[in-house]
Amino acid sequence: GSDVKLESLEQEPCLDGWEYSRDVYHSTIVSEWNLVCDNDWKGPLSTSLFFVGVLLGSFASGQLSDKFGRKNVLFATLAMQTGFSFIQVFSVNWEMFSVLFLLVGVGQISNYVAAFVLGTEILGKSIRVLFCTLGVCIFYAFGYMLLPLCAFFIRDWRMLLLALTLPGLLFIPLWWVIPESPRWLMSQGRFQEAEHIIRKAAKINGVTAPDVILDPSELQDFSSQKQQTYTILDLMKTRNILTITIMSVILWMIISVGYFGLSLDTPNLHGDVYVNCFLSAVIEVPAYIITWLLLRGFPRRYSMAAALFLGGCVLLFIQLVPSRMESL
């Protein structure tokens, strides 16, 4: 009988070197810096470091945009993401690449969060749900679809990274288009600037603005309330808010693990990596449209529970499908 324990056998290092298949990718960070054999932990760590950046950016961006303004933080972090991503193209080793990737992560999540907050604060409540679902998310999905398309034609990682970085420059003219959040300006006591933005919006939308938008007597009350600042600890003050906070934290963790687990796993699926990545992006469009319809017509709790339940069931059923039935 073959009773040899494979784990106990001594492993021999890769003595004769290695060759990389050029069928799918011409060059990657793995082939460039030989992240194989003893160094194969470095590839996945790069991705993890990006998400460490996302963690740091999530903490910092909210505090910074409360202090310096939504618009300033949005554009500063867009510049940060584009700038460090551009420098990343010229990385000389894996360490440099990974540190820059962490900084790109900080910038990426910070401008995403700032844009979300700015949009919800500028827009009226009737259109806010539309902005969050179809406005932000559907265009996120379109960008996601463009990724495998670019990668299909640009098989070298440096050139691909450059191609994905340069569109960041298209945001520069938006500085003169996107206004600061009037709500934030008011919270800072900058009422004239806030009123100017509201009047401009009214003019563009063909609405006649009232003579007095911000009543001076009401502003006195507002200014006296203004001194109150909030921190993360305020989310734990009352039992009700604490419960909602804990539930939101758990939900976001579960959803992120599921979403990025599935998204980042597409290269390991059967079939063409580019097609799989493209399909994983395309499927988001109907998902966001369904979300928008659910948020319009159904209670949030039931929509949330149903989506999680459905997702969980599908993932469980995948385990029951025989591996020979690839398409299913």
UniProtKB/TrEMBL annotation:
UniProt xrefs under InterPro entries: MFS_dom, MFS_sugar_transport-like, MFS_trans_sf, Sugar_transporter_CS
Domain of life: Eukaryota
SUPFAM superfamilies given in the database record: MFS general substrate transporter
Membrane protein topology class: Multi-pass membrane protein
Bilayer-spanning residue ranges: 43-61, 73-90, 96-118, 130-154, 160-178, 241-261, 273-295, 302-321
Coarse class of the protein's main subcellular location: membrane
Keywords from the named record: Membrane, Transmembrane, Transmembrane helix
Residue stretches making up the Major facilitator superfamily (MFS) profile domain: 1-328
Protein name: Solute carrier family 22 member 5
Lineage: Eukaryota, Metazoa, Chordata, Craniata, Vertebrata
